[in-house]
Sequence to fold (152 residues):
Amino acid sequence: MKRFRFPLRPVAMLRAHQELRAREAFAAAVHAYVSAEEGHAAAKARGAAFEAELFSGRRERFSAAVEAERLAAYRLECAAEAEAERAVIGARARMNRDRAAYLEAHRKVEVVKRLEAKARADHRTEAAREEQAAFDDFAARRHGARVPFLRA
Fold:
């Protein structure tokens, strides 16, 4: 039986490497998305704390200068929260794009794996057919070389 050789082995190796790179890019995108989500949650918490401080300060004596400073700081905090939200949206889009690229690369690897499995099965079938033909030939030679016991 001759040894199995898959002609698309270089393609399989290339696609496996591309899948690995796509998986790493997807993992990095997930990590960036989680970090952006955490940053957004922290910005929201800071904004909520600022709002609570602003509303609690209104119960005391009113000072226009202090309130103007607090309002300006609150606007900066709102802008930071909006920026964090935009970062989350961008990270989510990148993560979805990288997920699609990874799934496509994985699909291509699976196609080559199925082709290799089919080629291996065909190789085994052909080897079994050759082996059976050799056994049949051997049996035919043995049968032809046999001397009959009774001759009439």
Remarks:
- Residues 4 and 124 are 9 Å apart (CA to CA).
